[in-house]
Prior knowledge:
Layout: E1 16-21, H1 34-43, E2 47-52, E3 65-70, H2 78-91, E4 93-95, H3 98-105, H4 109-115, E5 124-126, H5 129-138, E6 144-149, E7 159-162, H6 166-177, E8 182-186, H7 189-192, E9 197-202, E10 205-211, E11 216-217, E12 221-222, E13 232-233, H8 238-255, E14 262-270, E15 274-281, H9 295-311
Parallel strand pairs: 1-2, 1-3, 3-4
Antiparallel strand pairs: 5-8, 6-7, 6-8, 9-10, 9-14, 10-13, 11-12, 14-15
Helix pairs in contact: 1-9, 5-6
Amino acid sequence: MLVSTPAPSSASRVPRVGVVVTDSYPLEDLDHDTAPLVAALRARGLDAVPVVWHDPSVDVADFDLLVLRSPWDYPERLAEFTAWLAHAEATTHVLNEPALVRWNLDKHYLAQLASLGVAIVPTTYRSRLDDVARDLAAAPAGTRVVLKPTVSAGARDTGLFDADDPAALALAERVLRAGGVVMVQPEVPELSRGAEKALYLVDGELTHAIGKGALLAPGGGFVGGVYQEHPEPVPTTADEESFARRALAAVGAATDLEVPLYARVDLVDSAEHGIVLIEAELFEPALNLHVAPHVADVVAAAVERRARALTAR
Length: 313
């Protein structure tokens, strides 16, 4: 008598997880996270592989879950990336949630968080060159300003200038000609001294904090001539931790979305402004696992919980 063998239940199926990356990185800004994260996921019994987001040979339907990690070339390919994200969202599960990613792609979100009570660096958003010129002319004598586009990563087209430096207006013109919007901010001296802290939260819980040193040099360039972070673990105060949690709660209020898988809250404690939010990175933050290796398994555990829940449905 033939006895049929039952198919494996979905609960016993090994989840397949794609860790979303790109295909090349500059030497000064390497992806230090994917290898340890993939290894930690595999150690937990998941079928995890890196996935280049723009690789045409990849079928996103092959994955139960895609975890966005380091697709850091997206600013130069924004339309292509957003189309890929929409396709991935329609085909499988993506974390962080694509709705959150789309909200987070444009730094206008900072104004929304400010309206919800999160202190930010004072910012104007300008889509006309003469408005930027008026902002620069209104800056107090002898002060510096920071200009940046609302859509950017790795400090692309970001510069620190004396307010009367013609190079500031030239940068603004370049951003506007590319179709962007310019953010104009006063220099925060503590940032220029390297006091920025990045606080990381996984499933809403603080895991570690990283200092990366000063990045912008006066005149529109980078310290040392190239964009290069120098990450190292740093302590945090109770006030900084409370601020990070409040900022993440405000993100939830603004988007009506659940607590993200991961978040990075960049802040600085300023003598003039108090603790202020520089950026809430909810899309592709470098986790700096090479200097915080214990966090790899924390992230992997959070991914595993979600991946196994998906395959158990």
